[in-house]
Amino acid sequence: MIGLINVGKSFDGGQTYAVRDLSLEVTEGETLILLGPSGCGKTTTLKMINRLAEMTSGRILVRGKDILGVDAVNLRRTMGYVIQNIGLFPHMTVRGNVDVVPRLLGWDKERKQKRTEELLNLVGLPADEFGNRYPAELSGGQQQRVGVARALASDPPVVLLDEPFGALDPITREQLQGEFKKLKKRLKKTMVFVTHDIFEAVSLGDRICLMKEGELAQIGTPKEIVTQPANRFVEDFLGQHRYQLRLTLSSLHELFSQENLSPVKGEDLATISYEANLVDALELFEESGKGRIAVCNAEGTTIGALRRDQVLEKI
Ligand SMILES: Nc1ncnc2c1ncn2[C@@H]1O[C@H](COP(=O)(O)OP(=O)(O)OP(=O)(O)O)[C@@H](O)[C@H]1O
Ligand SMILES: [Mg+2]
Q1: Which of 62, 85, 139, 193 has a CA positioned 20 to 30 A from the CA of residue 28?
Q2: Cβ–ligand 1 contact at 39 (below 6 Å)
Q3: Is residue 14 within 6 Å of ligand 1 at its C-beta?
């Protein structure tokens, strides 16, 4: 869907580089995470995809077409963009912010209104209550939601998100991440998502591209990155989180076969999904205060129980 081929961005006539010789592919419907420390070139890479920044070397193809052959404004209309630090227009209401692109595209009033209301509902900000407020009258988390709604407004096939949940407290952040996962499943867009948070990357990405000083350090699924770091930089980036990340990446399903589960007979046990991970299971033991938890399948039917010691053994 999106291909970067030896892409570079230099300044001062080639003396300094923001991005250097970057090649990667984003497949249709995939969420690719651009991850890395501050200044490693994530925002620059994102902006080169929608031509808010022009590359100085290499090529970018979208659906096989070189983006330099497409008018930049038309290109951007096919790509939603959530700007780092929210970037809402302060003098426009929530509605006005969300329907910026539909307005540019000349949609009629009814279509714009319907779409805006649909999107505000989607991100949990009912239009009746929030539509006529100004950004300054919203919390940080609500502003971020408006940013996401705005990027989705014209239903673009591609969405670029630059730290959409940055600068939020951990609880709101986790909540928005959960909602993003649901949206992702439902909308099936091709997304490039920038973050510097490894936990966010592992939780939301189909694949992760880890960058170091403008170059690609490793690209792979969250599991590949966490369990098979390609080099010292990746190892150091994971650091002490490596073990915790491994726990979040192993589902109960992968770790325990049905034969490992013990029968449940009319007991009142807290229930967890077979697809949940070890950290979730530990939290549930903690919460329920019992030595066993029930495991259910995708249909919600209990298929057996796990003992605390079975779970601890895997850690
Ligand atoms: N216009 C510019 N002129 C010179 N250097 C620039 C320019 N824009 C960006 N850079 C440099 O390019 C590098 C990459 O910047 P970029 O904004 O892509 O980083 P980032 O990974 O998004 O960082 P952060 O996590 O802090 O947002 C940085 O070292 C930055 O200083
Ligand atoms: Mg950035």
Answers
A1: 85
A2: yes
A3: no
